[in-house]
Please model this.
Amino acid sequence: MLQNRDMKETAKSIEQVVLELVRMIPKGRVTSYGAIAKAIGTPKSSRMVGWILGHSVEIGTYPAHRVVNRSGLLSGRHHFRPPERMEQLLTSEGVLVKDNKVVDFETLFWDPMQEV
DNA sequence: AGCTTGACTTTGA
DNA sequence: GTCAAAGCCAAGC
Model:
């Protein structure tokens, strides 16, 4: 049936969509796991976004440092090598990081659904 | 098959 | 505003 085929295609591309969204995040802007999860249609599995970033492909293929948690906290910095890399990358792009948190997070926040 | 863990979010106190 | 608990889905053991 066509439904089966559609579901299959949808299911297989989840991590691909996540990576694509992360890649299209503008420089100097940040977003949250929940926003990405919502954009791909699975707002409940916001954890999966982070899980995908860590286990899908190697860090460096996409700007994962632009993805932070809802509070603007760099919760995933410990998964970078070295962990300080995330903060350093953000700072290099003009995003100020203070105490592992993004300064003016709400201002720099980039919503994939709102912009696209 | 079941339990624990995790780059999270939301809700209630 | 912070803190604790519940919900959520997938991977690892």
Remarks:
- Residues 16 and 56 of chain A are 9 Å apart (CA to CA).
- Residues 32-34, 37, 43-54, 64, 67-70, 74-80 of chain A lie near DNA strand B (CB under 10 Å from a C1').
